[in-house]
Amino acid sequence: MKKCSKCAKSATLHITEIRKGVVQEVHLCESCAQQYLSATTPSEDEDIELEEEAGNEAERELSDIDQLVCPSCGISFREFRSQGRLGCPHDYIAFEKELLPLLENIHGATQHTGKFPKRAPDASQRQYQLIKLRSELKQAIEEEAYEQASRLRDQIQQIEKAGGE
């Protein structure tokens, strides 16, 4: 499910515009779609300027991103984009900033929430739970949700204490 191009809601309207030979896809939620459709269109000169600026900026951004290389396996982000496959597990860290939006668009989330193997040892399940809680703690601190962060910290300490027994 695609996200809205203007906000974080799910997109319900998908528009493909072709202006002066440039294809642009716009994904909008219900409220942003109403604003988009009711907005007046800019003059043709402004339209051309905006397209040129967007095109130049997008090209610069893509060329910068394509230059990224994994220090472990040596695959570049350009190679990943052309092949659709990463070279090693370290690529997730090397290309994290670029992969997170991609994974979120494809899967709707960036955190695995599936099932565990029933035969998985308790230690690996506990380790997974600790990783998940630490990630949530980091996010809570970034959002300055300190009460939630303290609860998460206490949960982490409780699990670590239980694992050491």
What do you see in this structure?
It contains seven helices and two strands; from the N terminus they run ββααααααα. The chain is mostly helical. It has three domains: 1-39; 42-107, no CATH class; 122-164. Strand 1 (13-19) and strand 2 form a beta hairpin. The protein is extended, with a radius of gyration of 22 Å. The mean pLDDT is 79.
The main sheet comes to: 2 strands, antiparallel
Structural class: mainly alpha
| Gap between N and C termini | 44 Å
Kindly report the average pLDDT value. 79
The number of helical elements comes to 7
Rg from C-alpha positions?
Answer: 22 Å
Quick one: overall form? extended
Number of domains: 3
User: How many DSSP-defined strands?
Assistant: 2
Q: Strands of the largest sheet, in order across it?
A: 1-2
